[in-house]
Amino acid sequence: MTAQRTRYTGYGIWLIVASLVGWWAAFQLTVEKFFLLENPSGQTSCYVSVMIQCDKNLSSWQGSVFGFSNPIIGLTAWMAVLVMGVAVLAAVRFPRWFWGLFGLGVAGAFAFVCWLIFQSIYMLAVLCPWCMATWAVTIPTFLATAVHLVRNGTLTRSQKARQRADRLMVWVPLATIVVYAIVIAMAQLAGLDLLGEVAGMLF
What we know:
Layout: H1 2-7, H2 9-38, H3 55-59, H4 71-89, H5 96-124, H6 129-151, H7 159-168, H8 172-189, H9 194-202
Helix pairs in contact: 2-4, 2-6, 5-6, 6-7, 6-8
């Protein structure tokens, strides 16, 4: 039991950190949505420029694809991730089907985020700061969970595969950076001067 707790500590901590960041981003987007409903002609606090803002995303149909504001999904889903993170740190043993459902949920979140990234860059031509915060934690959460489901025996019983996945976990940060670079490249190719805007915000 102790060995299992030590082995998965990093993953558990990441789930907690990611859930807190993701939940806060969803909360902020929810607040901004309420503001827009009360002030249709107003600008949200996350409005930086024509290309970096939350307003256009929240007011679009993509921002309420299931009939309600997308951030509401984040407010509930990230709580599940937080609970799993605490459970991992506590070395709670879940059956394979439970981990499988969690993995399916994370994969669904990743697919949804990929779709939102495409919609934001190519359809809406804007980058939402709080949306990007959500993207930033969802991507590594998916990558880490995919590797974890192999090493904890959910996706395979092969001991060799589990050992390889355990060693592969250290490469998740690098893989995450690569995915970030792809998203930035997509924004640049789409004509969104992301780097210039970010530099302007910092300096």
